[in-house]
Amino acid sequence: MDRFFAMKVFACVVEAGSFSKAADALRLPPASVSRTLQALEAHLGARLINRTTRSISITEDGEAYYERCVRVLGEVDDMEASLSHSKLNPKGHVKVSLPTVMAKSTIIPALPEFFAAYPDIGVELLLTDRQVDLVEENVDCVVRVGAIGDVGLVAKRIGAYSQITCASPGYIEQYGEPLSPDENSTTTTRSATC
User: Fold this and answer.
1) For residues 91 and 121, is the Cβ–Cβ distance under 8 A?
2) 62, 129, 130, 136: which has the highest count of C-beta atoms within 10 A?
3) 154 pLDDT exceeds 60?
4) If we measure between CA atoms, which residue out of 141, 173, 171 comes closest to residue 156?
5) Bridge partner residues of 127 (DSSP)
6) Which stretches does DSSP call E strand in the chain?
7) What is the value of pTM for the model shown?
8) In 3-state terms, what secondary structure has residue 121?
9) How sure is the predictor about 9, in pLDDT bands with cuts at 50, 70 and 90?
10) Rounded Cα–Cα distance for residues 75 and 80 (Å)
């Protein structure tokens, strides 16, 4: 028997004043309401409600049990409401590791809008391209571009990120236009995200 459900059924029967009205309110068959209440009374070893063909009345034990049920059910409702509220208004601190280029071009410009939407969240950015030890460095989330190696972590693709390598006209004039990334590997190349 689900005692929590049985408490709800019992409280509803008391408040509705009849099994049929409680069944309607709970959207259950009247027989289910009756069986649930009988199982609850058997579990408690006490009669909670006196039944006649025309009416019900709550017993002394039923009155005491009802008062406690209302408190417990109210506490559960309050607890669920507070959790729902925390989902609507998340708060806390998150440490995110991501590449510097991505942080500067995408994440940092979006932070004011993020903080406006989630004022109770603090964000700490760790800007690096190296592999991060999440536990050792107390990092909550790592964002990386490219293939994920087998590092024993849960990884999920969150989007596509385009990056191109550009060269200034001066670079082309001085070193020539490379036909592949490996060409001119002996010279110092400079790349930028455009």
Assistant:
1) yes
2) 62
3) yes
4) 141
5) 98
6) 49-51, 56-58, 92-98, 121-127, 141-142
7) 0.46
8) strand
9) very high
10) 9
Reported confidence tier of residue 150, pLDDT bands at 50, 70, 90? low
Residue 165 has pLDDT above 80, yes or no: no
DSSP assigned state of 47: -
Where b means 16+ CB within 10 Å and e means fewer, 131-168 reads ebeeeeeebeebebeeeeeeeeeeeeeeeeeeeeeebe
**Domains observed in the chain:** 3-87 (1.10.10.10), 92-160 (3.40.190.10), 164-194 (no CATH)
Identify the pLDDT of residue 85. Answer: 62
Could you tell me if 163 and 193 are in contact, meaning their C-beta atoms sit under 8 angstroms apart? Answer: yes
Q: How far, CA to CA in Å, does 178 sit from each of 44, 98, 174, 192?
A: 84, 29, 11, 15
Answer for the pair 169, 107: CB distance below 8 angstroms, yes or no: no
Q: Render pLDDT for 80-129 as a digit per residue (tens, 0 to 9).
A: 877 766 666 788 899 999 998 889 888 899 999 999 988 989 999 999 98
**Given this model, what pLDDT does residue 54 score?**
80
**99 three-class SS:** coil
pLDDT of 2 strictly over 80: yes
Query: Which of these, 28, 17, 97, lies nearest to 6 by C-alpha position?
Result: 28
